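Entry 12.
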Amino acid sequence: MHANPPCINAAGAVLDDAQRRFDELLAHLPAGVVMHDAAGRVVAANRQALALLGRSDHQLQGTQGGDAAWHFVRADGTRMPPAEYPANAVLRTGAKVSDLVVGVPRPDEGDVRWAICNAYPERDERGDVRSIVVCFTDCTALKYAEQSLHKSEERMRLALQGSTDAPWDWDLATGEIYYSARWWEMLGYVPDEQQADVDAWVRLTHPEDRLRVLALLDELLPGPRQAYSMELRLRHHDGHYVPILSRGFILRDGAGKAVRLSGTNTDLTERKQVEHRIHELAYFDQLTGLPNRRFLLDELGQILARNGRAGRHGALLFLDLDNFKLLNDTMGHDVGDLLLREVARRLRRTLREGDHLARLGGDEFVIVLENLGQSPAEATTEVHAVGRKLLDVLAEPFELAGRQCASSPSIGATLFDGAPTSIDALLRQADLAMYRAKEEGRNTLRFFDPGMQAAVDRQAALAAALRTGIADRQFVLYCQPQFGHDGSLVGGEALVRWQRGANDLVAPGEFIGAAESGGLIAALGMDVLEQGCHALARWARAPCLRALKLAVNISVHQLRDPDFPHAVATLLAATGAPADRLTLELTESVFARNPADLVERMQQLRGLGVHFALDDFGTGYSSLAYLARFPLAALKIDRSFVQDVDNDPNASSIVEAIIALARKLHLATIAEGVELDAQQAFLTAHGCDVMQGYLLGRPVALDEFERHYGRPNAGAYQAASGSST
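Predicted 3D structure (tokens):
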């Protein structure tokens, strides 16, 4: 025999090496691979296949499925007919087999190993099946986990029979989720009325709970935990939220990966109602519905800490009804209870939203005020204003059981600023101050600190004097002339003074604040307005004055009064004053609340012919929207800008901008505080319409103003040296 040529030997070596590498690769594949010939007999199997099937290579070689030692079972556990075996199915149909789950009995171990099978044919040049390759992927752990889940579900179904809990199930592998009929009914839906997807619970979860639930899932799924329990709120069909206790468990595969999440939802509505009722009984007064002493003590500690951190003062007020025992004894406890409920209602209505009100018991109430200011003086003023309101609102008669009754409170107050102090000490201080109020005549407020009380006494005395002054017509008008840019007299601004005695003339800076805090500013404002209307009526009959306008300041309290337009109309009609000569000056603070109501009232007054000027423009929170929305006729440039126009480029630029803005909006400009020729020259050069100030004319008594400017040729600008006030 002749030796093979070298080329043939080399080719054989290459083929042997390729086969060796292929066999090595096949041996180390993580999946089992079994090769069958065209008749379906096993011709080769790799190491993973032998381990999975539990047989040796010798046992498999030349065998076909179907004998006693070589068979499969279906996914449901029944024996699989040989025709359905992967290799036989390929031979029978000529098509590949994909993702077939089969069980492999292991006689030596007495169990079944599960695998996912894929089989496909290899064909020759004519298209005939030459061999079949079957691949097995072990899924035993997943199959047993599924069986465990089914057993758990069955146990859960048995446990939930007759229960009102709502089961649900979420397959994390497929994303499929199941909500029971009870799950939907608990939320007021017909089962399957909503789309049963994973996002259903996300859509229905309360926005405040959603992030918390998602955070729990992020913690649960990767971790080792097997169970969880949490409370959340789900939206009911009618819009309210149902409190839910959600409990469940996490099913994991052999590697610890979460593959299923199952649980139940329990409606906590009744339990929450019981808890709420217990809380009310423990912390709230059953007669008035107010917080009780226990609740107050818990809250007061937090309030003290908050005020301390903010560097603000607060106050504790102790309120006791005067002669309450006498009312109880003479009219009965039922009427006394009615009075306590009505007092609580009035106090709630009077206090701010952030204030705290509690009933300690009997006829004793405690009020805690926060954020009253950074200084004791500010806080004292605020407390006095609140106390005045409380005294006024409780002084109104009470309708109790068809009878009209009167009552009044004695109020004690003490301040706190966050410095270390005991709650009991604060209550004792306020209690002592309350008894002092009773000793000093009742129906009043007293402070624990004597120095503060002295200041309050002065404030109260001033308020009382103001009431007397308004009633006795002690307030008189002064008038400061206003000149056009050409030097002609165009009007005047009414300024109020308090004539307390023949030689005691009080400037407004000393009493306007007290009038505002004492609730007298509206009455004072109407007095000034009435005097101004009488003056305009006189001017209308004087040839030299009839063309002048009179500007009168009004307060925010007046303009917020719905009856103010009617009151002005009544004054104009009664005095005969020409409405188009009356200008009402207001500050930007009136625009801070309810602008729609203010616009309506201003439009009513504009309908009468009255004009409006915006005072101190540029110093507050000016908004161009206000200028466009409110029916204004003029902007009044604040004196702080005017006094620096000749030496401060910023001030002069601001004044120029205000004049330009007013011109664009067809508004007049009025400059106040003109004291120097340079200021007057600057304003004239830049087109300011009207000016007033000591350079042009000082404020004088109204009768003196009328005598001086009522004469012919007396209405032109001149450096005035008249009496100053």
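Annotation: The chain has four domains: 25-138, 143-272, 288-448, 468-709. The CA atoms of residues 468 and 474 lie 8 Å apart.
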